[in-house]
Amino acid sequence: GGQMPLIRRVPKRGFSNFRFKKDFAIIDLDILNLFEEGTEVSPIMLVEAGIIKNVKSGIKLLGSGTLDKTISVVVNKVSASAQAAVEAKGGTVTVHIIKTFKDVAGNR
Predict the structure, then answer these.
(1) What is the pTM of this model?
(2) What is the mean predicted confidence (pLDDT) over 48-61?
(3) Stretch 57-72: mean pLDDT
(4) What is the CATH number of the domain that holds 36?
(5) Which domain holds residue 40?
């Protein structure tokens, strides 16, 4: 029995970014070799191919692995090495920025 300790009675305080965290689906350059030469790879194609389960908060392309084909990619974030690798093979990287509530609301 006994009284509940003070530290457990007082509500917890502090910073937590959990509600606003963006969880990106990660893909590597190796995975893009699964697609045909000259294909424009979109998030919907990645889901249909079973490479990622869902789009979550977006897709980020990372530069690990090698790219053997000319492919255009539509993603939400891209690392500098991944963008350089895609462009070196003659492909393009299109970055769609996800708008947040703060971006839409502006300075009200």
Answers:
(1) 0.76
(2) 90
(3) 93
(4) 3.100.10.10
(5) 21-98
